[in-house]
Amino acid sequence: MLTSTALLLGLAPAATAGFDGRLAVRPARGSAGSQVEVRIECPAEEPFFFRPLPPVESAALAVSGAVDPLRSTADLPATVRAVPPGRYSVSVRCEGRGGNGLIAYRTLTATFTVVPKAAPPSTPPPKKSQVPRVPRGGVATGDGSFRDR
Description:
By secondary structure, the protein is mainly β. The chain contains no helices and 11 strands.
């Protein structure tokens, strides 16, 4: 899901046609503690040069890494936070600077799904004896009616 919003100072929306930008999280789903990558591709619109404007905002992801101010793209590592399973929004703003002091902003959004953490495989409990105390020695048989005389 991609949404783009704009605040343009001095330009009509028709003058800004071009690539709208993209925000993606790969993989698109994960459990608490897993590692993912956030890919930011800011728009390409004349006369602006857009660059990512940190932070990447999400209740589900702790995003780290730095953004190169000379590039319009960024690949940032992120860790899935310990949040309840469900769908979470991820967003980032791109700032564009053009000639004559023009500034434009775009907000890119994506959705990330937190899934329950897989339970570790359970090991069976150790087998217990059927009797509380295991007898020692030979087996005593008979009903006791025959005795040595």
